[in-house]
Design a protein that fits this description.
single chain, alpha/beta, six-stranded mixed β-sheet, three-stranded antiparallel β-sheet, 14 helices, 13 strands
């Protein structure tokens, strides 16, 4: 029996790290309207299959998803290659990656578009205008995965192997023993230290501690309980500025802000289950959104109603019974709108309007009276904005960070973890 041997050709699909590819597509999956800044409410072409195709192509050749050797093997010698065959091979690879994303639940087809196209084809109905491009939707699984990857990358850049815990200098009677035991007092957790209790009973009873039956009589004063480090709880509201300026001036500031919020959400859910996190968007007005919708948020109207965002955040935090309550405000602009008592929105985008500023600081004072700390992360450096942010920090005894979209994540996570090394009453 004769055997015929052929040269083994590796499949580029098997070399691709799929998780890494999905991470490279985060800019597309979390798009905030930057591609169409003058009409951010329009879905535009951000999430079409063609945009996904182009993003995968860029990740393969420019994002390092495929090695140089795999690219060379797939393309072959440019002088001898059959360009049509190479193009078809590349298209097949991209289509397999898209199918894999759908199978794994990272994306789904937009509802009704395919069904509508099928019904049109079956009925022979002519389409009016240009044909609509097939779109896709990002799933909750994909957004949760991107939050995890964002957290891992941010913590890795800070040189931390894990998210850690909210340690304080105080001790409490808990489950994990971390310090010397203490005599039991009413109200302590009954985390009995057996050896300490017996030794205390023996010391009290003296040489005759062991009875005739070999037992030791333990009394109430002998009880010793183990101590553990007290871990404080925290209620946090992230205030995200989604006004139009967050995607203007040639820079997308909103998508990095969303990534930071998603990373913080993932960290709190997995590392600090006793903490709470809420998200408030502020623009013309302000509203709270569910955490699972955070990755799908786009920029909103043009103005910045900081006072309304602070007011809503304060009301949310006043319902929380935690050791610490704080607002993390991420913005790049000055307050330029105000909700009046009759519900109308007063707007002034020129300079720092004295009326808007005074009402905003009145709400900052209300937060301070409620014991709520405000930490502001400013993505702009205008002198007036610097003065405004520093005054907010002074009133609420918070911190002011002047950062960029590229370093925002490190500042937010470090501030969150470091702050809880002390108990704030």
């Amino acid at each position: 029996m004769k055997f015929r041997y052929t040269k083994y050709t590796a499949d580029p699909f098997d070399e691709i790290d799929f998780d890494d590819l999905v991470s490279k597509l985060s800019e597309l999956f979390l798009s905030s309207g930057f591609n169409n800044p003058w009409d951010p409410s329009d879905g535009g072409d951000d999430r079409t299959m063609q945009a996904l195709h182009d993003a995968i192509l860029d990740a393969l050749f420019s994002g390092g998803v495929l090695s140089d050797a795999a690219i060379q093997q797939m393309l072959g010698d440019p002088a001898d290659a059959d360009h049509d065959a190479v193009r078809q091979k590349l298209e097949d690879l991209i289509q397999r990656l898209i199918d894999r994303m759908m199978e794994d639940g990272f994306i789904t087809s937009a509802p009704d578009l395919e069904g509508e196209a099928r019904r049109r084809a079956e009925s022979g109905q002519a389409e009016s205008g240009p044909p609509a491009q097939t779109r896709f939707e990002v799933t909750d699984k994909s957004l949760d995965f991107l939050g995890y990857r964002a957290l891992r990358d941010l913590l890795g850049s800070m040189g931390r192997s894990s998210a850690g815990r909210h340690d304080t200098r105080d001790l409490s009677t808990g489950i994990e023993a971390a310090a010397a035991s203490k005599p039991y007092e009413f109200g302590d957790t009954l985390n009995i230290d057996p050896s300490g209790t017996i030794l205390r009973a023996v010391h009290r009873l003296g040489p005759g501690a062991v009875g005739s039956r070999g037992g030791i009589d333990v009394d109430y004063p002998d009880l010793m309980v183990a101590q553990s480090e007290y871990q404080s709880s925290c209620a946090t509201v992230i205030m995200l500025d989604c006004s139009h300026s967050m995607i203007l001036y040639g820079e997308d500031r909103f998508t990095p802000a969303k990534q930071v919020a998603m990373a913080l959400s993932h960290m709190i859910r997995t590392q600090y289950p006793g903490d709470t996190l809420h998200v408030v968007l502020f623009h013309h007005s302000a509203e709270e959104i569910p955490l699972k919708q955070l990755g799908r948020v786009r920029v909103g109207p043009y103005y910045t109603n900081t006072r309304e965002g602070l007011r809503l955040s304060r009301r949310i935090l006043e319902r929380q019974r935690k050791d610490m309550r704080q607002i993390i405000m991420i913005t790049d602009g000055k307050p330029s709108a105000l909700t009046q008592p009759d519900g109308r929105i007063y707007k002034n985008a020129f300079g720092l309007d004295p009326h808007v500023i005074s009402e905003t600081f009145a709400e900052v004072t209300n937060c301070a009276k409620a014991g709520i700390m405000i930490n502001t992360f400013m993505l702009a450096r205008d002198p007036d904005l610097v003065a405004f942010v520093r005054r907010v920090a002074a009133v609420c005894r918070g911190k002011a960070y002047f950062t960029t979209p590229y370093t925002l994540g490190q500042y937010v996570l470090m501030d969150y973890m470091d702050k809880k090394t002390r108990l704030v009453h």
